[in-house]
Structure prediction request, 360 residues.
Amino acid sequence: MSFLSLNGISRSFGTTRAVADVWLDVHQGEFFGLLGPSGCGKTTTLRMIAGLEKPDSGSIEFQGSDITNLPPERRGFGMVFQNYALFPHLNVFDNVAFGLRARHKTKAEMAERVASALELVQLPGYGKRPVDELSGGQQQRVAIARAIAIEPALLLFDEPLSNLDVSLREETRSELRELVTRLGLTAVYVTHDQEEAFALCDRISVMVGGKLMQTGRPRELYEQPAEISVASFLGRNNLIKAMRLSSSKTAEGEFKTLEGGHTLHLPVKHEDLAPLNKPVFLAIRPEHVQLSTNDHEAENSLRGNIREIVFAGATSTVHVDAGGLLLEALVLRADGFEVDQPCSVILPKDRLTLLKNGRG
Ligand code: ATP
Prediction:
């Protein structure tokens, strides 16, 4: 039995299809990310999980029960949003105690739970402070304390760190992750920030245009994007248009690049064997492209010329023109390279990915 299941949920606003047929299973104890560009439907999906929005079709199950029509207060989930939504006229204690009061807890139990929630977010003894006297980071921690005080089985976060400055965001991020793990909670975390999702989440679904494009562990998504939209959204990628040549259904495919006419070999899984003589996209990360000023006879080694070198501190990006095929390589040291210099570019076959939706 899955902890939380979204079974083909959809939601439209007028003619805008905000969420389209989303299927998803979140496991107990998991820190799960919903990642995607602005307007892709992340918030609407989270609001449907919270019960603040109803799906037009599909159902939501939580611990084996259908909760699609259950009002938010009966789901008992903890929620933390971008703008904290603290009550400015209440002090820290009353903000954190808010959900407990609604649940008719005794005074003693309330005092104990608030104290322990404030302890967890490292604000012990802050109960009497007015919330408007706290810094942004402290207010956000109060919002987290309020969400965990009710000991929710599921925590929902919608870009909760986006109004914090960079250093505070990173600090709060690690604290949050540590806290959720320590308490053995399950979290669904919405963000458009790839780095944040990678740092926090056990698994991530990438959402584009209302649809879930791919779900996996951060490294898997980064290194083996299945779809062109995922490859383009998740950082820099060399996208290479190519045609499949060999017809044999072996584990290795032979491709010819449309620019430069290079032959490339890479492993292809049976289920994603590309059709012959139809353009597809291959992807490789700039940090996996190898550069050398020597001639190379290695497999997937292309001859090229260095077009440009962009220094960026710890790394440099070298732009290479391989007979019309433009590639970027990320290198730690670019001092052995010069503009206009001939070079070899090696595209290691286990780093090349065939994109599923890449039929161009
Ligand atoms: P962001 O990161 O910018 O918040 P998002 O990925 O969370 O974006 P949603 O807020 O879920 O995306 O919005 C998805 C689409 O649905 C957008 O086109 C948005 O304009 C539209 N939308 C969301 N809520 C409403 C609403 N209440 N009324 C009309 N349209 C809406």
Observations:
- The two ends are 40 Å apart (CA to CA).
- Residues 151 and 178 are 16 Å apart (CA to CA).
- The pocket of adenosine-5'-triphosphate is lined by residues 13, 16, 18, 36, 38-44, 192 (CB under 6 Å).
